[in-house]
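FAQ: What does the model actually see?

It sees only this:
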Amino acid sequence: MNKTMPLFYFSITLAICSSALYHFVAKSTPSNVNFTVSLLVTYAVAFVVTLFGFLFFPATEGIAVELKKLNWASIGLAVAVVGIEFGFLLVYRSGWNLGIAAVVTNVVASLLLIPVAIFLFKDKISLVNIAGILVCLAGLVMLNWKR
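And it is asked to produce this:
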């Protein structure tokens, strides 16, 4: 068995479970609370959880050395994360259904990333991938079909 296989399955399982939990919790956030205050608490807890992560993934060369390795992506990720948080809190407050909002945003975001993946990261897509993309587009139409 390949050494990276457990990480391969663990990582996608963690991402899927965390995403599902994220949407459940975002939808459960009280609508009468200021969402900026809610996010301040969220990020304070996230900071503590991230510090706990050093137990499993220590910075063996030291934090200062690791900080010097960073580029613009850490700032971009922070802006993206805050945008996702604010966006979904507003999405659920405006009445979107839990499952539909998550699917629509993930599918549309994935579709937007296809040209980036192809042209910037040189990813390859096959005919089967293109068929899957068409199915996703059909799914978006069906999800948003007025009854």
